[in-house]
Amino acid sequence: MNSPSGTSPLRTTRVLDPEQIAMQAGRQMPFLRLPARSLVFSDRQLRLRQLAASHPMREYLLFIADLAQAQHRVLQDHAAVALPGSEALEAAAKALKPPMPAFGWTRDPVWLNELRRLLALFHARAPEGAARDTLDRVVAESDAWIDAQADRLSRRVMFGLDLAAAPLIAAGLQVYWTQLVLSVAERDGENIFGRTDPGTECPCCGSAPTASITRIGADEAGFRYLHCSLCSTEWHYVRIKCTHCESTKGIHFESLSPQPGVELPATGAREGAVKAECCDSCNHYLKQVAMEKDPEVEPVADDLASVTLDLLVSEAGHQRSGHNLMLLFGES
């Protein structure tokens, strides 16, 4: 994907760390940002619809937007779920581990009922064709089959995973874990979730991030947060530090750079709003979306809409560490 002149459509940037400067100046920021029940999936579906305009993946972005709209409706009146006791929460905090790990926490069977309610809401908007056929097939499957698929998703096991059905089942998992986290926080307070080791995993459910986001606002301006792929919790993680191996050396950014003679698919975001933070130490990368470049960025939506950047960075020899449950790839 090089231009006729031999230059790459990727633009590499090595940067200083403004966040470290701010921290040394004594600025404080909240460590954890829990998802807002009324906004998390609503904002996502709005951003997806915005990005879908003139996008080569328009139909798929709208498909996921409709799915997010159903997620929003279910989360507003989600059934009560079984919560961990105070002793379990304290033990997890002392061990620097997430209290409700995605691959370890026993899911409340109510999640299956809420998934089926979500799929029923989604069915009214699902387009005819292969998408509707997949939806009907998942609805007709047994709870045991869905639970087995959910186990594979939670453990990031691709062998035996139904890739067509995965986003539908993942949508139910995301709503369930968001409800779980919010319910614990409503009962015990946000501070019940603390820092974990490693710091690259979600402090609530231990899942990998989809992307990171540099925020704006009085308390958070310039600070970077990782966005959980499962429960949508965000946690502070210093900039210019690999989110895979935690190295601070060899970090650089790659972004799509318009060049003469090279036509790049539109991402929908403003220029410079989505970059790939690459690590030369482990050859992994994670997308970073910047609110200072585009205040309306949303990590899951903008990650989906910038697949072209993934392809180019992968061609340059870096491996993706971000996990987006709405777009999974099978292994050879």
From TrEMBL:
Q: Which GO terms describe its biological process?
A: protein maturation
Q: Which GO terms describe its cellular component?
A: cytosol
- Annotated FdhE N-terminal domain ranges read 30-188
Q: Where in the cell is it found?
A: Cytoplasm
Instruction: Domain (FdhE C-terminal): give its ranges.
Output: 240-327
The molecular function GO annotations come to: ferric iron binding
Q: What is its main location?
A: cytoplasm
Q: Where is the FdhE central domain?
A: 202-239
**What Pfam family is a match, any one?**
FdhE_N
Task: State the UniProt keywords alphabetically.
Answer: Cytoplasm
NCBIfam families linked: FdhE
Identify its protein family: Belongs to the FdhE family.
| PANTHER family tied to this protein | PROTEIN FDHE
Sum up the protein's function in the record's words: Necessary for formate dehydrogenase activity.
What is the designated name of this protein?
Answer: Protein FdhE homolog
Per the UniProt entry, what species is this protein from, by scientific name?
Variovorax paradoxus
